[in-house]
Amino acid sequence: MDINQLVRKNIQKLTPYQSARRIGGNGDVWLNANEYPVAPHFELTEQTLNRYPEPQPEKVIQRYAQYAGVQPDQLIVSRGADEAIELLMRAFCEPEKDSILYCPPTYGMYQVSAETLGIKTKTVPTKADWQLDLEGIEQHLDGVKLIYVCSPNNPTGNLIDPEDIKALLNIANNRALVVIDEAYIEFSPNSTVVSWLANYSNLVVLRTLSKAFALAGLRCGFTIANKPVINALQKVIAPYPLATPVADIASQALSKDGINAMKLHVINLNKQKEKFASSLAQLSVVEKIYPSSSNYLCVKFQDNKDVFNILWNRGIILRDQSKSIGQNNMIRITIGTQAECEAVISALKAIK
Fold first, then answer.
1. 280 CB neighbour count, 10 Å cutoff
2. d(CA 302, CA 118)
3. What is the mean predicted confidence (pLDDT) over 155-174?
4. Which stretches does DSSP call E strand in the chain?
5. What is d(CA 19, CA 204) in angstroms, rounded to the nearest whole number?
């Protein structure tokens, strides 16, 4: 029996999201997944593994709501923000009829999730400065239910102009939800748009514990929105999205001590980013270092240097963004430990 004949047609054609782990690599310096470079330590306190977990763990919801400055009924917790991206499509988009819109270069899961569900996609590339093309978006809104905007943007690292986000919310009013992906917002906390929920019923914000909270392996994310949106998502989310150990550690990370530790992570990493950018700027192989409000740098290297593969072969695993950005030798480098950043600099110095 040819099982492929049973696979949905859109899945037969689908290329899965090329995550850092799926791409692979061998080495000692892993700076390709925007992870925090040092693992935190937690002890499990919940031992009720014979019972199903809470559908929406109360302590996690309460603590994140307090941290984000919203009400608990404006939150839903999921298996990372990646699940939230898909939940919104499942709740609001009719397959083969409705569309999502996103603005490349940006996070690839928006496209993959839509294609997996049989939802149409529209793209309006950002302008040369990686800001939104509002006129282009407005011209392509027919049939669009969800607009995904990542700020700080992955892979470019820039914040989206808040005035443009407000304009987009107004353009999309009574037509589509505007989903602001704030996975990296802790590295630029004053730029969050969560406080705008009172004024914009079509605003949705995505968050995660994967980046500044240093818990990528936990898979814990949040959708923040007004209650009607959360009610819709409650209808399509899995019965028990967070395992008991995940909720246990998440609630610890969201304690007062846990949040203070996260803020210290941000201070230390931002200092390391400045130091790393300064070292990169002194290298002849580097053409441009783009400003970053995140935990990574987007760097343009000389076109005639095969920087990505040279470092890959030396066991320094970075993320090639040439295809997604549309320029050769564009590489995204996660900010690692001092030793890891020094290893990158040393390897780059050896390129002639």
1. 20
2. 40
3. 98
4. 29-30, 75-78, 99-102, 120-123, 144-150, 177-181, 203-208, 221-225, 286-289, 296-301, 316-317, 319-320, 330-334
5. 24
Q: Specify the 3-state DSSP secondary structure of 158.
A: coil
Q: For residues 57 and 26, what is the distance between their CA atoms, to the nearest angstrom?
A: 38
The 10s digit of each residue's pLDDT in 221-242 is 999 999 999 999 999 999 999 9
Buried-state track 137-175, b at ≥16 Cβ within 10 A, e below 16: beebbebbbbbbbbbbbbbbbbbbeeebbbebbebbeee
**CA distance linking residue 264 with residue 14, whole number of Å:** 41
Q: Mean per-residue pLDDT for 20-27?
A: 70
Residue 218 DSSP label = G
Lowest mean pLDDT across 13-27, 37-51, 210-224, 296-310: 13-27
Contacts 24+ apart (CB under 8 A), 337-342: 337/37, 337/38, 337/272, 338/272, 338/275, 340/29, 340/31, 340/37, 341/272, 341/275, 341/276, 341/279
Q: What is the pLDDT of residue 21?
A: 62
Residues 75 and 66: their CA atoms lie apart, in Å, by 11
Rounded to an integer, the average pLDDT of 338-350 is 96
Distances (CA, A) of 283 to 127, 274, 295, 300: 28, 15, 21, 12
Of 249, 253, 279, nearest to 265 by C-alpha is 253
Cα end-to-end span (Å), the chain: 55
- pLDDT at 19 exceeding the cut of 70: no
194's tokens: 């969560």
Residue 150 tokens read as 């990542």
Strands 75-78 and 221-225, bridge-based pairing: antiparallel
The span from the CA of 324 to the CA of 106, in Å, is: 8
